[in-house]
UniProtKB/TrEMBL annotation:
One of its GO terms (molecular function) is glutaminase activity. IGPS catalyzes the conversion of PRFAR and glutamine to IGP, AICAR and glutamate. The glutaminase domain produces the ammonia necessary for the cyclase domain to produce IGP and AICAR from PRFAR. The ammonia is channeled to the active site of the cyclase domain. CDD domains: HisF. Belongs to the HisA/HisF family. This is Glutamine amidotransferase domain-containing protein. Keywords: Amino-acid biosynthesis, Glutamine amidotransferase, Histidine biosynthesis, Hydrolase, Lyase, Membrane, Multifunctional enzyme, Signal, Transmembrane, Transmembrane helix. Residues 1-22 form the signal peptide. It comes from Zingiber officinale (Ginger). Residues 32-115 form the Glutamine amidotransferase domain. GO terms for biological process: L-histidine biosynthetic process. The keyword Nucleotide-binding does not apply.
Length: 464
């Protein structure tokens, strides 16, 4: 049998395997949860793991068991994150893993096939990308999905959230079908796929919501389930969905909690969900009262599914000021002066797709949502979106230094050099791009080869 090891809290278990479960120690700067592709080192010969030593596999967890003399005979592989911890055990016909083989690309599929057929001689494809040695920086492909004027769901992208063509027809820019692009990005080597609904009126057009990996608020539609099932069967990297995850009441007066909505996403194939505006409102209230009510969508979903399953999307705008004393929020000394020579700036958060500003800074919001249960932050700089001039290094440095959870850099990538810059100058754990991948201006493989050449570890692109 094969098992997934899930460690939740330090309580007495069955005692079948010697060892103590503990949480990763973040006091020395380690980011917890441990999210991403990390190197696997095998410690004994097993048919299941015979060709995956020195490869990256996908982890997402906050607790681990350390190797010891008492459990040494059980250990089949270890992984290093701060310290070496047990990543798999083998004894007799029992195999258990801490990582997620079903989300570990070709490497994980090889493990599962060998469990089903130990005599299988299939080997995972080796890559020129290099041998795994530590936690890799992630390259994430984002699908911005809208319903166009004909009611079709398309992947789109535009400058400063203007997604319509500049022709006379002014049609919504169509860069491809969501499911097809998701599958292609997996083949191209994306470490994760992130999908976000960009227009809420899609609900009215369909009566339901069908967005790549998302189900509607009102019911489980058979077509949507088929899309999700197909995607999960063909995309073996983590899938994150976002857009509209909040409490709501339908036309018949039926109330749906955000937890119910998120639950449908998870049951339909999502690995993580992303919360935007709702998390901003929750953080504002928390900072105002100092009370965690446990009733916000962020708190509820995190409590039920774990903080590693919840991403908070932060969408700030840069606001220049002459002095840090001009505002009550955290400011930075900017690398480039403002339009009137200002040397400082703060980042004002927005909601509703960047259309409405809120009285809270990105620094304050990030720290608040971390306390409320977020396991990861997606950081989008509205000023840089679609510009192709690079990520906002000042913003990403500010937020990634403020929290102890992983931060995903987003908005502004236009060249491979922008990815190495953000990883070299900030503590970002991942970098996300959309338009340059959709338009095939910058291939994912080129990004990874460039990062490797600059001494930045990345996961091998399966098949390359």
């Amino acid at each position: 049998m094969i098992l997934r090891i899930t460690f939740i809290c330090a309580v007495k278990g069955l005692g079948l395997i010697p060892g103590v479960v503990g949480r990763f120690d973040s006091s020395n700067g380690l980011r917890v949860p441990h999210i991403g592709w990390n190197a696997l080192q095998t410690t004994k010969d097993t048919e299941i793991l015979d060709d995956v030593g020195g490869r990256h596999v996908y982890f997402v967890h906050s607790y681990r068991v350390m190797p010891s003399d008492a459990n040494n005979e059980w250990i089949s592989s270890i992984c290093n994150y701060g310290d070496s911890f047990i990543s798999s055990i083998t004894r007799g016909n029992v195999h258990a893993v801490q990582f997620h083989p079903e989300k570990s690309g070709d490497v994980g599929i090889s493990i599962l096939k060998k469990f089903l057929d130990p005599s299988s001689s299939s080997k995972t494809k080796k890559s020129a990308i290099g041998k795994a040695s530590r936690l890799a920086k992630r390259v994430i492909a984002c699908l911005d999905v809208r319903a166009n004027d004909k009611g079709d769901l398309v992947v789109t992208k535009g400058d400063q959230y203007d997604v319509r063509e500049q022709s006379n027809e002014k049609e919504v820019r169509n860069l491809g079908k969501p499911v097809d692009l998701a599958g292609q990005y997996y083949k191209d080597g994306a470490d994760e796929v992130y999908a976000c609904l960009q227009n809420k009126h899609a609900f009215a057009l369909f009566g339901i919501t069908v967005v790549v990996f998302m189900l509607n608020y009102l019911c489980l539609h058979m077509y949507a389930k088929k899309i999700l099932r197909y995607t999960s069967e063909n995309v073996f990297v983590p899938l994150t969905v976002g857009g509209g995850i909040r409490d709501f009441t339908d036309g018949n007066g039926r109330y749906y909690s955000s937890l119910e909505v998120a639950s449908e996403y998870f049951r339909s194939g999502a690995d993580k969900i992303s919360i935007g505006s709702d998390a901003v409102y929750a953080a504002e209230e928390y900072l105002r009262t100092g009370v965690k009510t446990g009733k916000t969508s962020l708190e509820q979903i995190s409590r039920v599914y774990g903080n590693q399953a919840v991403v908070v999307s932060i969408d700030p705008r840069r606001v220049y000021v002459r002095s840090p004393d001009d505002v009550e929020f955290k400011t930075i000394k900017v690398s480039s002066p403002g339009p009137s020579g200002e040397e400082y700036a703060w980042y004002q958060c927005t909601v509703n797709g960047g259309r409405e500003v809120r009285p809270i800074g990105a620094f304050e919001l990030a720290k608040a949502v971390e306390e409320l249960g977020a396991g990861e932050i997606l950081l989008n700089c509205i000023d840089c979106d679609g510009q192709g001039d690079g990520f906002d290094i000042d913003l990403i440095k500010l937020v990634s230094n403020a929290v102890m959870i992983p931060v995903i850099a987003s908005s502004g990538a236009g060249a491979v050099e922008h990815f190495s810059e953000v990883f070299e100058k900030t503590n970002a754990s991942a970098a996300l791009a959309a338009g340059i991948f959709h338009r095939k201006e910058v291939p994912i493989l080129s990004v990874k080869q460039h990062l490797l050449q600059n001494g930045i570890e990345v996961r091998a692109c399966d098949g390359h």
